[in-house]
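Q: Convert this sequence to structure tokens.
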Amino acid sequence: MSIEKICGYLLALVAAPLLLGVINRTKAFFAGRRGQPLFQAYHDIFKLLRKGAVYSTTVTAVFRAGPPASLAAVLLALLFVPFGPVPAVFSFQGDFLLVAYLLGVMRFCTVNAAMDTGSSFEGMGASREVQFAALAEPALLLGMAVIVRTTGNLSLSGALQSFASCLTTGSAPVTILLLAAWMIVFLAENSRIPFDDPNTHLELTMIHEVMVLDHGGPDFALIQWGAALKMWVLGALVVNLLVPSVAGGEIAGAGIFLGGMLALAAAAGTVESTMARFRLLRVPQLLVAAGSFSILALILVLR
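A:
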């Protein structure tokens, strides 16, 4: 295990909350406001860690185990995601399936904690979360299948780093379809507009936020950090397609990759500033479109 891999992993752990700051500052720019400080997410997490937690008398150990278990799942998933040209900390043949399953475990822990409260309100959010995840996950897995088929490498780290070099002339449609599918998944899985609004508390529109209303203090800090890390993992898949490698070596490539992650966060903030949230009945249609894009990309690769 090289020092470069460990540094890349640690940098991802530290830089993940910065993506939320970039999104908020981008939204403030479009609204003509000054907005929150760029490092507001760090302040919120540290502030929550210093507080105490209050638990309902109706919850069990499932509720208390939800935040640390979901954070542990995404921390493991991050171990298999490369930091641009810097390979992932661990990799093996077929690890892309493990990454997808770990993201599913993260969701399972969050949903279980929400259901454990016995609240119909949180149960409603959990139901919506599972429904939309069932449509988003096929688009993610089929996109990974496209990369694996193109490169012939069953390791996610190796496949992402060699994807661009394996594309031939006329393969631009494959990349465009894959980027479109994964960008939709990125917004949906991170509860961003047009799928969900992380800043709202309206009963008829909440999906993810409603599931964590009963968490507070350190538990909510773990949820916030875990959400930022999940955004990093999914964003890294998108950025690695656009910035696979550079001639300047790993250091220059890592810098370009970090810039690409910040640019992706700015793009997400731009989408939130220029689009309205979809009605719940329209959300499945867009997720099905993402799956269709991945299927089309896979067909083009197989032909």
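Residues 3-302 form one domain.
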